[in-house]
Amino acid sequence: MNVFLPWMFHEQNITVFFNAFYRNRNAGKINFWLFEK
Fold this sequence. Notes:
Layout: H1 5-8, H2 11-24, H3 29-36
């Protein structure tokens, strides 16, 4: 998770991350992927 944080909060990737998060949060795919890291 710590290695992933810089990518997640990078200016060019934060929008992509949150778009994917909100599109998949109902299925819980992103949540599972993040917290399993």
